[in-house]
Design goal:
The complex is a heterodimer of chains A (about 500) and B (about 150).
Chain A lengths: L2 H12 L2 H19 L5 H8 L8 H26 L8 H49 L4 H18 L4 H15 L2 E2 L6 E2 L13 H19 L19 H23 L4 H16 L11 H17 L1 H7 L5 H12 L8 H4 L1 H29 L7 H20 L2 H19 L5 H23 L6 H4 L1 H31 L1
Antiparallel strand pairs in A: 1-2
Helix pairs in contact in A: 1-15, 2-3, 2-4, 2-15, 3-4, 3-8, 3-13, 4-5, 4-11, 4-13, 4-15, 5-9, 5-11, 5-12, 5-15, 6-7, 6-18, 6-20, 7-18, 8-16, 8-17, 9-10, 9-11, 10-11, 13-18, 16-17
Chain B lengths: L4 H22 L12 H19 L6 H7 L3 H24 L1 H15 L5 H22 L12
Helix pairs in contact in B: 1-2, 4-5, 5-6
Classes of the chains: A mainly alpha (about 500), B mainly alpha (about 150).
Chain lengths: ~500, ~150
């Protein structure tokens, strides 16, 4: 099946009534959850996973993808209106979006964000469509050593790119793999760390980890910030019309940053947050009047918005074609695939073309929906921001509890949800990043399997990882991504000391 | 010795990693298999011990923002603890009393406890939410939730 035929198959899925309905549900739910300050795309996806039980995989995954990019789309609304980013990928949006709103141009800011997001999303879907099949056909020849090295690179990349201390990010990642070793080893049947408890035989379901480490931990932060301002009824949004001059001004940053965002989205470890910051700094550096940035610049708003949405589709490239997520959010997406019995990877394109192409085709549709939904309806959608925090907290707790209960109908899992919620909260308080943990948890099992397969092939010799060029170069990149930032830090500290 | 928070966390992680490593050495391994079930856990245990030592001796100074993040008033911690307590009670009882009734009670009281005083809205949400969720899960998705004392 060539790409053109594939895309036709995809549009058949996306444009069926089921496809349209679930894309719509996905993007609306994603937008609404993404808007809530404190609740990110990981929580949005994890909360929606139980809804997909028993559904046909193609429409279910089309919906989940919609939740993801819808959340990134929606995150900008609270950044602009409340200066409280809905998700970390839209922090940079608030730099110029909030000042613009304070000048009484909230409507215009929302419109710019919507158009830039649409543009970034659409450009990167086109690139996803071109790149994912190509990567799939290359990846089909990857053996276990290459896969192991790829995953290792993903983990080191996310650790070194995490905010704050790299050591803490690595601890987070190692802890994630440690948790996945609990349960019966799938290859030998040995019980590991189960203490004989039947409840631990199957290990922890990833939904417990995702909802605990993110949704429940985010609820804890909401409890602490429950008195923060929510949207007041009398807040005026102003006109949402954009002039030709506005569109002209944003076209440059939008086009450039869509590409930057896409590339950063494809690379492991980066994702929407880093993409939006880099794009913001990029545009500020090349701008003729950089002093306008931070005071309500159209360019400063369009750049991170096109970039974070482009990164979102970009992140689907490694997920769909290699089956390896590069970020915390795509790790939970991978979980959503596995729940439905779909294994993404190089075979997905040929074995399940309706899913592979369906998701890609649905993204065109989803971005159009988001634009249409966001432009005229944004004043109404933004009303959700006026939901009182205490009520929101209670409802999110309930969604998480129902979600976990519906996997196993076992209250033990609910207690574990509380335990991981407390852990996630402690990690936030003590500045340990949570995305490396969830990525490691998802990749851990696959990594162990790839490692053991490699060792079986090589009869126990580690040389298999360095004898062929691909695994060797990936492992070198992985090491470099850990050592390089530390080296740069050390050098800048030394220079600082010299100056003093 | 335990002057900074990173040192205390480092020590705690060291202890946890040692426990994990100890348990890893109890795992059985069989001859003729190049990599048995114990290899990865042992590797992880040593890696964690190394990382905890690195954290203990790291010279990174806590930034003001990081300090502010963990500086939570005691009263707020108690509020959080109470929310966890309510969830605990919910889990303990909802299979016995049933999803709908327990969820109604939980939403109403936790929202009220956290400072939501719009009495009427709170009651409406606490009644509607569990019923709608129950309908979606049980009738639309075919996932059964505990009925408890209500004969539905």
């Amino acid at each position: 099946m060539d790409a053109f035929q594939g895309l036709i198959t995809g549009f058949q899925v996306a444009l069926s009534w089921e496809g349209i309905l679930f894309v719509l549900i996905g993007v609306i739910v994603g937008t609404l959850i993404g808007m809530m300050p404190g609740l990110g795309p990981i929580s949005a996806i994890a909360i929606m996973i139980p809804i997909t039980y028993g559904m046909d995989p193609a429409p279910a995954l089309v919906m989940m993808a919609g939740v993801y990019y819808g959340a990134v789309f929606g995150g900008s609304t609270s950044s602009i209106l409340l200066n409280a980013p809905g998700i970390s990928g839209t922090v940079a949006t608030s730099f110029d979006g909030y000042p613009m709103a304070q000048q009484g141009k909230a409507g215009k800011a929302l419109a710019i964000a919507a158009v830039a997001s649409f543009f970034g999303g659409t450009v990167s879907v086109i690139m996803l469509m071109l790149l994912a099949p190509a990567l799939s056909s290359v990846a089909i020849s990857f053996g276990p050593p290459a896969y192991f090295a790829l995953m290792l690179m993903g983990l080191t990349a996310i650790s070194s790119l995490s905010e704050g201390s790299t050591i803490k990010a690595m601890i987070s990642a190692v802890a994630g793999i440690m948790v996945v070793t609990i349960g019966i080893d799938p290859q030998t049947g040995t019980q590991r760390f189960t203490f004989g408890s039947v409840n631990l035989f199957d290990g922890f379901d990833f939904l417990i980890i995702a909802l605990g480490l993110f949704a429940i931990a985010e609820v804890c932060m909401l409890v602490l910030n429950r008195r923060n301002r929510s949207l007041s009824d009398d807040q005026k949004l102003g006109s949402i019309k954009l002039s030709k001059q506005d569109l002209k001004e944003m076209s440059g940053p939008m086009t450039r940053q869509s590409f930057v965002g896409f590339i950063l989205g494809v690379l492991p470890g980066a994702g929407a947050t880093i993409a939006s910051f880099i794009s913001y700094i990029f545009e500020k550096k090349i701008a003729k009047n950089p002093e306008e940035f931070g005071k309500g610049s159209i360019k400063g708003l369009a750049a991170p918005e096109s970039s974070n949405n482009a990164a979102t589709s970009g992140a689907f490239v490694p997920l769909l074609s290699l089956g390896i997520p590069g970020s915390g959010t795509t790790a939970v997406m991978l979980g959503a695939f596995l729940v439905l019995g779909v294994q993404p990877g190089p075979l997905l394109m040929t074995d399940r073309p309706e899913i592979f192409w369906g998701i890609i085709a649905s993204m065109y549709l989803g971005n159009i929906f988001l634009l249409v939904l966001n432009l005229p309806l944004i004043p109404y959608l933004a009303k959700i921001l006026s939901i009182p925090r205490p009520l929101l907290i209670s409802l999110v707790i309930m969604f998480s509890l129902i979600g976990v209960y519906s996997i196993s109908f076992n209250t033990f899992d609910l207690y574990m949800l509380l335990v991981f919620g407390a852990l996630g909260f402690a990690m936030r308080i003590f500045s340990f990043p949570a995305p490396p943990f969830i990525l490691a948890f998802i990749l851990g099992g696959m990594m162990e399997q790839a490692f053991r397969q490699s060792m079986t092939i090589s009869n126990g010799s580690l040389a298999i990882f360095v004898n062929s060029p691909l695994p060797l170069s990936l492992i070198l990149i992985a090491l470099l991504s850990l050592v390089l930032p530390a080296f740069i830090k050390w050098r800048s500290r030394r220079n600082l000391l010299k100056q003093q | 010795m335990l002057s900074t928070i990173n040192r205390r966390i480092g020590l705690l992680l060291f202890l946890i990693a040692s426990g994990y490593l100890f348990l890893s050495y109890q795992l059985p391994n069989y001859p003729y298999s190049p990599v048995d079930a114990d290899v990865i856990p042992k590797g992880l245990g040593f890696l964690m011990i190394l990382l905890s030592i690195l954290l203990f001796f790291s010279r990174a100074v806590e930034t003001e923002a990081e300090k502010a993040k963990r500086n939570i008033p005691k009263k707020e911690l108690l509020v959080l603890l109470a929310v966890f307590g309510m969830i605990f009670v919910y889990i303990l009882l909802f299979e016995i009393i049933g999803f709908i009734v327990m969820t109604m009670i939980f939403i109403f009281f936790s929202s009220w406890f956290l400072g939501y005083r719009a009495f009427k809205t709170n009651i409406i949400v606490s009644i509607l939410f569990p019923i709608v969720m129950y309908a979606i899960f049980v009738y639309a998705l075919g996932i059964s939730l505990p009925r408890g004392i209500i004969p539905l």
